[in-house]
Amino acid sequence: MMEIEKYFIPLRRWWWLLLAATLLAAISSFLVTLGQPPIYQSRTTLLIGATSSDPNPTSNEFVLSSQLAAYYAEIAKREPIRNATMEVLGLQRLPEYLTSAVPNSQFVEIVVNDTVPARAQAVANELANQLTLLAPTSEQNVDQDRQEFVTQQLNTLEVQIEETQTAIEDLQGELGNLVSASQIAETQAQIGALQIKLTTMQTIYANLLSSTDTGASNSLTIIESAVLPSRPIGPNKALSVILAATVGLVLASGAAYLLDYLDDTLKTPADVSRVLGYPIIGHLVEIEGMDEKKEGVGVYVTENPRSPATEAFRAFRTNLEFTAVDAPLKTILITSPSASEGKTSVSINLASIIAQADHKVVLLEADLRKPKIHEYLGLPERYGLGDVFRGRINLEDVALKPNIDNVTVITGGSIPPNPTELVGSKMMCSILSKLSERADFIIIDGPPFVVADALILASQVDGVIVIIRPGYTREGEARAMVEQLKRSGARVLGVALNRIPQKSFESFSGYRYYSSYYSEPQWKSDQSSSERKSPKPRIQSLIGRFIKVNRD
Question: What is the mean pLDDT of residues 287-309?
Fold first, then answer.
């Protein structure tokens, strides 16, 4: 299940892009279709040749008719037909139309789409009319005198054929009554001559008939005229909006995966393990205001002891204790590949959560370039570690007692001009040694690895914790930090993923973030007397809690 969910991480990360693209496409499509007029459709059908009326058609005639249908369907799209139609109807341009030959048939269809129903009908009928005028059997392509002569000849042949057939039948009737051999032979000769004459006249008749409209294969007949359409066929506004929204969603999804691919930040625990190679010992959820520079907000675990975020810090502390099984662990450096990854808030809350286990903890500000601990805890910044280096004040005098049990804080103090040299000096080693004698743990809020101070401090402490902010820490910066840690020979305890979005916490940590068991007490001791007396509010409260637990 977790393997499948990771493929949806880019979609969840860029949900606003998906929503914006889908809404923009849908709204744009709606506005476009809103101004579109309705489209009406009219059609007419033409028949090629007279094969369908022939009682004994051949397959060649059907093939020829199909080929002629394709020919006329293509001709209808050409400029001569278009120009002739526009001239007859007095139009400057023709609406959209389609001509096609119905597969394996003798039919040609002309379909016209237009915003005006009457114009669609008129154009369809006139296109069909202009197409029939191109056929050899049309009135303007036929010699009328010649057609009249052919008709007369056909009529004469019909009479002669009938007379000959009658004569043959009479002779065949007489043949049965004859006795003389000479008379029988003479009658048979007459019948043979009449049959030859009949065959000749029938051949001539068929040839003449093929040159007329009745028997022509290359002829066009309108069998279905265009009618006035009463209902529009489009546009289908609902379908257009749905398709546009779908296309927008698909394109936005592709863009989300592309942006996720081009993003070189460490986004998942798998990315962190692949690049850094250190175990992940902390999954710290992002809580609104936790990383802001406001007085007291940094001590979240003290003010919210039963929150799920505090439980995450307790799990972090437990994992940290397991790393100290094989080697002593007193001085711990909290650092990160780059700035703004939340290492200061992690240092403060980690110090507080360790102190809650009845340990004496010193929280030391070692980022002498941009000290922040005093801002988070609302402490004065008159003196600190920088002033100790300058010899202005003793180490004991800069130790401050914030409103956190078992925690002593040493802020950064005055910012020195040479912090790298100071943290790498023998005096720094002496300070760490003195603090180790007075406390169980020293949590050092160090600078990020973009400066050399972090590399020097890493070589002087018992262990280093690397803070990674998923979706923010860049892979190149993380790789550079790993190389520096390897060169310094520092002992890296592990990685803490910080400021994990609440909605993504389960996919990062592997367990559910929300739990009503930790988020609030089951019963409040200060229930009103009315609640104690009446069971109804209590039952409603139980039902509400049951629904909330199941929903979470």
Answer: 68
8 Å CB contact between 348 and 479: no
The pLDDT of residue 527 is above 50: no
Give the pLDDT score at 505.
Answer: 61
User: Both tokens of residue 143?
Assistant: 């010699």
Q: Which CATH homologous superfamily contains domain 269-523?
A: P-loop containing nucleotide triphosphate hydrolases (3.40.50.300)
- Domain 40-140 architecture: 2-Layer Sandwich (3.30)
CA distance 187 to 199: 19
Measured between alpha carbons, how far is 520 from 440 in angstroms, rounded to an integer? 32
pTM given for the model: 0.56
463 close to 392: Cβ distance less than 8 angstroms: no
Give the other-Cβ count within 10 Å of 225's Cβ.
14
- Report whether 112 contacts 228 (CB < 8 A): no
Q: What is the DSSP string of 48-62?
A: ESSGGG-SS--HHHH
Cβ atoms of 86 and 92 within 8 Å: the answer is: yes
Q: What class is the 143-212 domain?
A: mainly alpha
End-to-end CA distance of the chain: 18
Instruction: Among 175-179, 429-433, 507-511, name the one with the lowest average pLDDT.
Output: 507-511
Q: How confident is the model at residue 137 (pLDDT cuts 50, 70, 90)?
A: low
> Which amino acid type is present at position 282?
G
Domain with CATH 3.40.50.300 in the chain: 269-523
- Model confidence over 348-378: pLDDT tens digits? 999 999 999 999 999 999 999 999 898 888 8
For CATH 1.10.287, list the domain ranges present in the chain: 143-212
Residue 154, token pair as written in the block: 């056909």
Is the distance from CB of 46 to CB of 222 less than 8 angstroms? yes
Collapsed DSSP state (helix, strand, coil) of residue 522: coil
The residue count for the chain: 552
